Amino acid sequence: MKKFIIYIVTVILVFALCGCDMNMDNTPTKKVENLLTKYQSLDDDVLEDLDNTLKKDTSLDDEMREEYRDFMKKHYEDLVYEIKDETVDGDVATVTAEITVRDYSDVVTNAAAYRLDNEDEFNDESGNYSDSLFTKYRLDKLKEVEDTVTYTIEFNLTKEKDEWKVEQLSEEDMSKINGLYAN
Question: Rounded to the nearest 5°, which phi and psi values hold at 169?
Fold first, then answer.
């Protein structure tokens, strides 16, 4: 037992003397991994952002909003990532990651083209264009997507008060995470 205690004290002293950060979660790579894991684990903040985005979309009724929420939850759970590189320069860092997600970009583009070529299909009983009918069509097509795509994202971080923080992602990078980025 005495040897075990000496070993533990030695390990702690080695880390303290070499200046190693005992908080291994406070590295740029760990912060990016934590962010991406929040998507995979359907963290409350991720779901709140999703809900807020869906509330803003007036083309969705409550049923479509719930369908969209369900398939996006599955999308986030299936997100796969791999950290490729980390570069630190003082209090600034960049972490490069590859993410693999479902590729919804073609469906969105093709649905818009289909709508233009088949306008009458999206008319209500009165013969007027119904955004709701088109949204339902697009939603059904999005739920069928199985193809995936791999994107590279460079996450920028800054160190504030000895804590690494991921900077707000660009609209382009959010489109990649959501599988909507059109190359």
Answer: -75, 150
C-alpha 160/C-alpha 102 separation (Å) is: 34
Domains of the chain: 27-177 (3.10.450)
Report how many helices (DSSP H) and strands (DSSP E) the chain contains, helices first: 7, 4
Read off the DSSP letter of residue 121. Answer: G
Token pair belonging to 171: 């609209």
The pair of structure tokens assigned to 92 is: 């600034």
> Residue 126: CB partners within 8 Å, gap ≥ 6?
none
- How many other β-carbons are positioned within 10 Å of the β-carbon of residue 96? 16
Q: What is the pTM assigned to this prediction?
A: 0.82
Q: Which residues contact 155 (CB under 8 A, 6 or more apart)?
A: 28, 32, 35, 94, 95, 96, 97, 166, 167, 169
Interval 28-83: pLDDT, tens: 999 999 999 999 999 999 999 999 999 999 889 999 999 999 999 999 999 999 99
Q: Is 96 in contact with 153 (CB distance < 8 Å)?
A: yes
R_g of the chain, CA atoms, integer Å: 23
Residue 88 and residue 122 in contact, taking contact as beta carbons nearer than 8 Å: no
| Residue 85, H or E segment | strand 80-89
List all residues 6 or more positions away from 156 whose beta carbon is below 8 Å from its beta carbon.
92, 93, 94, 166, 167
